[in-house]
């Protein structure tokens, strides 16, 4: 009995690692944990406190290592632990103005103080943010969803929120700490990614049995599903507020929906090239569709909206447990798409992908 209890306690600790500093927030059949270690360890350094030891201790934290990992997406080999250490040393000595082409956009003193104030309000009263966030999120999850989610608050990244495909999500708190509706929007969007990360509908073995071209197509389709559905769950049109960040999300959605025909054409063009031109760099297509204007988010949003309208919210929730091809197939077969039809080219690539997955699965 004793051993069993200990084992349970150990696995519970692992599930919410690294450190959950606030109480875990219970939501439906799962909990949402919080990790503020990156903010807590980096804030004094940015305020010129502590010595090198404080920097080295911060660099040991998984939450701080995630900042390095995220920034490799836009800075590639320039984002390393060593580079972060150098930039933090500059901040600590007050010479951050001399950093040439900084990799980590750290906030100034005034922003840090603002972040601290909002964070202490949040820790004193998590309900104000978390009750509506949980309500929004939980209705879009499979009914039996029970994997704990861990929310890690960070800064020094270009992104407002991100996730790496597991039940851990990251909030770039410096980007919208002073815009509560935008914070809730980003939090729900990333929590949805966290939940999606609890499933692995296409196993590693199956993916390994795909050809390089097939894997690239699958990745692109998967990103379209992941981003579009998360955007639909945290639908910018559903939020009210006058903050700049929320306005940015809402305006971009309006632009996208107005131009939906063009967006689907761009999506298909990249898909076609990934499927047929082995020399094309998949990162170019990822950047073109999923960063900046984030056009493909709107494509996936329109598809998610149609799936919910035609098959119900439960069906859309279920897609996180299935290969991403299902997402596009449901849209193609929907009676009322309220969006562009998928072209013959798109459908042919989709059919090939479905066959490839079946073949790869049979090989395992
Ligand atoms: Zn996202």
TrEMBL record:
GO terms for biological process: proteolysis. Residues 1-22 form the signal peptide. The keyword DNA-binding does not apply. InterPro entries: DUF5700. One of its GO terms (molecular function) is peptidase activity. Keywords: Hydrolase, Protease, Signal. The keyword Cytoplasm does not apply. Pfam families: DUF5700 (PF18958). It comes from the Bacteria. This is DUF5700 domain-containing putative Zn-dependent protease.
